[in-house]
Amino acid sequence: MAAVQLWYTASPISKESNVTDSSFASLALSPAQLDNLGSLGYHSMTAIQAAALPLALAGNDLVAQAKTGSGKTAAFTLPLLARLNPRDFGTQALILCPTRELATQVAAEIRRLARYQQNIKVVTLCGGQSIGPQIGSLEHGAHVVVGTPGRIGDHLRKKTLSLARVNCVVLDEADRMLEMGFVDEIEAIIGHTPSERQTLLFSATFPDNILAMSARFQQSPQRISVESQHDSPQIDQHFYICQSQGRLEGLAKLLAHYRPDAAVVFCNTKQLVREVCSYLEQQGVSAMALHGDMEQRDRDQVLVRFRQQASRVLVATDVAARGLDIDELPAVVNFELPRSPEIYVHRIGRTGRAGRGGLALSLFTDTERYRLDGIAELQQRELTFEAIDTVAWGDSPMPPPDFVTLCIAGGRRDKVRPGDVLGALTGEAGIDGAAVGKINVMDGVTYVAISTDLADTALGRLLNGKIKGRKFKVRKL
Ligand code: ADP
Ligand code: MG
User: Fold this and answer.
1) Which residue range forms the structural domain that includes residue 163?
2) pTM above 0.85, yes or no
3) pLDDT for 11-54, tens place per residue?
4) Which of 356, 390, 424 is the last residue of a domain?
5) How many angstroms separate the alpha carbon of residue 72 from the centre of ligand 1?
6) Phi, psi dihedral angles at 230 (to 5 degrees)
7) I need a surface site. Which of 295, 319, 361, 438 has the fewest CB within 10 A?
8) Residue bearing the CA closest to ligand 1, atom 26
């Protein structure tokens, strides 16, 4: 499995806690950049970022390996931006990518990460586009050039690009560039850069010839590698073709058939999130929506409730699900196939963690069928599908959730700790400790999961009792 999405450990809960080692604030980055990262929702580093950034910011060459979707772009972009002199219009950083699509994505990410500074020009140079406008942009100065080796080679031969002031060269997706036979072109390009430079090599896989490539272009590189936490065989992937008008029913059927203890259902749009959620509710399945139009507070609450097993189904868009960190999520359902295979891999990476088997179920219609090919290709495996009609409804629907979340109007600021809440429940209130689930203390509130059958009793007792000698408002979510 690719992409173990390590930043999903950046839950809204940990975001509220003190700065940890994986916080960007531990790095030598400008306050403006730290603000920018916060505004992008990057609250903590992914594993590859935590490993690569300190070394790269210190100027080391790196050979870094991590799966697709692990945040490699920021791992090389933050160091090169930190060093960039905006007043020097010479090209100071060069990023080589295997394809135009990848170069375009990387350039977009660099622009986002560079937006804390004004006037940083990022130019994309790829084949398949006319060269004239590219020459025009280069004449206006390009601090950062992102492109494919072929087209960058063309510009060097035409002398429309100078790499004489480049201080950082990035080989992104180096394995794919090798596969595509770009190595000689890359060598020629690097020959145009100063020998005093930083060279960062990023790759999703680590074939032997990567080391040979590294030896040719790098100086005492540090080698880092972030293992994926699980491999795709541990995720059981099933694909179901359905009619577009049968999709909602197909979803209900899959949930009834597989009866996962919990599942995240991904939709491509927020409108669909709402529709799917209300449909499931109508069917008696407890489901909660998570999408970008919701207030951050409401989103945090939904995530807490889902984590506390107070709802079995979370219906989400990809963007909203970014803060999602659920240990051992039993199942992921794609209500539709996502627009790119990378997103599919991100999505299903949420299940089957910690060595447990995971279940990934996908519904698609005939018009989305081509997306299956991309998914098969990215995972380098053959995929088969079945008709949703061949799936049997289970004998009984999904059971109600095991827990109810109680919200106590006091948190870290009031010096409330999990032990205080547990003590209040099991002491005077006389609730069996086994009926108390997860306790999440936030700044101003505390959420505690209570067994569904004891929720009302616990609520009443908390309302009448005290926590740390104080009375707090308590309500059921
Ligand atoms: P890779 O190059 O490893 O495949 P990308 O750099 O394309 O991965 O990142 C994948 C996605 O993760 C992007 O949408 C990016 O914006 C997002 N991302 C990267 N770093 C973080 C982070 N620290 N926190 C949240 N999202 C991140
Ligand atoms: Mg990448």
Assistant:
1) 6-226
2) no
3) 222 222 333 468 999 999 999 999 999 888 888 898 899 999 99
4) 390
5) 7
6) -155, 160
7) 295
8) 42
